[in-house]
Every structure is written in C-alpha cells, then in structure tokens.
C-alpha cells in the first residue's frame, strides 16, 4: 500500500443547535473535548469521561484543534461570552434577583 492510497477520515464534527459543534453522532461538544485536553487529560482519559466518543474521534478532534487553534479558540471564546450573557440574563429575570445578589455578597464577604 502506498501513502497516496491512504485517505484521512473527515473530522468527526457536526453542527448542533445554537451554533454548538458536536462530536460524531454524540451530544458531546467540541468544547468538552478541548477543555479536557487543555486541562491535561490524555485521550484515553477523555474517552473514560465521554464513553460515547471513540478514541479515534478524540484524537481527530484534538488534531483538528491543534491545527486550527486560532479559529477554535475564537469559537470557544464566543461560546463563553454567550454562556455568561445568558447566565446574567437569567439571573436578572429571577424573581428573587435581589436575594441572589445578597447571597453572592454574603459569600464574598465570607471568603
């Protein structure tokens, strides 16, 4: 077999709802795999945490991240921004928003 006969499989990423990238046929996000990798997990440890994702797909997603780091980091930053914005919106609309801010202030004083 010659090297020209070997085809690289496509990156196992697909778009999900609200702009989220999912791994393979699972509900595991690109964010989750990259976060675990950046936290120092080895690919086999990531599979232990996300058993629905085969080891070869974990390696493929990590390789995709390393090859497209700028773009993936921008995507992750946008996801964090949206999560923070949504969290703030939800907290602001809670009926007990005043109580929540009091509890947060109390926790901060105790730390």
Structural class: mainly alpha
Q: Mind telling me which CATH architecture this is?
A: Orthogonal Bundle
Number of strands: 2
What is the terminal-to-terminal distance?
63 Å
The figure for the number of domains is 1
Compact summary:
The chain has 111 residues and is mainly alpha-helical. It has helices at residues 30-38, 43-49, 55-67, 69-93, 97-110, and strands at 13-15, 21-23. The N and C termini lie far apart (63 Å).
Please give a structural write-up.
By secondary structure, this protein is mainly alpha-helical. It has a single domain (9-110), classed as Arc Repressor Mutant, subunit A. 61% of the residues lie in helices and 5% in strands. The chain has helices spanning 30-38, 43-49, 55-67, 69-93, 97-110, and strands at 13-15, 21-23. The chain starts with 12 loop residues before the first strand and ends with a helix. The model has no long low-confidence stretch (mean pLDDT 90).
Fold topology:
Layout: E1 13-15, E2 21-23, H1 30-38, H2 43-49, H3 55-67, H4 69-93, H5 97-110
Antiparallel strand pairs: 1-2
Helix pairs in contact: 1-3, 2-3
Provide tags for this entry.
single chain; 111 residues; mainly alpha; Arc Repressor Mutant, subunit A; elongated
């Amino acid at each position: 077999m010659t090297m020209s006969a070997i085809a690289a499989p496509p990156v196992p990423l697909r778009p999900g709802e609200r702009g989220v990238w999912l791994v393979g046929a699972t509900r595991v996000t690109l964010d989750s795999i990259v976060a675990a990798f950046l936290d120092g997990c080895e690919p086999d440890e990531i599979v232990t945490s996300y058993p629905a994702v085969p080891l070869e797909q974990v390696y493929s997603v990590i390789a995709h991240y390393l090859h497209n780091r700028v773009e993936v980091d921008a995507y992750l930053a946008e996801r964090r921004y949206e999560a923070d914005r949504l969290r703030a919106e939800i907290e602001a609309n809670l009926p007990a928003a005043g109580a929540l801010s009091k509890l947060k202030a109390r926790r901060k004083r105790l730390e």
